[in-house]
Amino acid sequence: MKIRKKKYNLRVRIWIDEEEGPYLGIGRIILLEKIKKTGSITNAAKSIKMSYRKAWQLVEDMNNRSHLPLVKKILGGKNGSGAELTKEGERIIKEFYRIEKEINNFIKKESKRITF
């Protein structure tokens, strides 16, 4: 009887926590990216099938947990109200993906070493 070796892969989901709880994960990063793209929390929420209330709560939570705001509201003006990412918000997105890439490279190497 021939024994067939099985291949296993490790998977992880990355959360960055702050003292009082979750700060960033891929869902929050996607929300930030959609805010950047649409210029609106409302439109960002719609595009990922999230309620405006939930999106606003997440934005407030991230802004409160960060040392600098990630999103700022734009009130009125000729283009109406909206929201935009701050420089810190854009930096956080890049940093999250950098960390995720390093972790995934490690996970790929470790997956090759699994022997059960």
Description:
It is a single chain. The chain has 116 residues and is α+β, with helices and mostly antiparallel strands. The protein has one domain: Arc Repressor Mutant, subunit A (Orthogonal Bundle). The protein is built from 4 helices and 4 strands. The strands form 2 sheets. The protein has a two-stranded antiparallel ribbon. Strands 3-4 form a two-stranded antiparallel ribbon. Strand 3 (71-74) and strand 4 form a beta hairpin. The longest helix has 27 residues, at 87-113. It is elongated. The two termini are 18 Å apart. The model has no long low-confidence stretch (mean pLDDT 92).
Quick overview of this protein structure:
By secondary structure, the chain is α+β, with helices and mostly antiparallel strands.
The H/E string reads EEHHHEEH
How would you describe the shape? elongated
Low-confidence stretches: none
Strand content: 5-15%
Which value, in Å, is the CA radius of gyration?
A: 19 Å
CATH class: Mainly Alpha
As laid out across the biggest beta sheet, the strand order is 1-2
Secondary-structure-derived class: alpha+beta
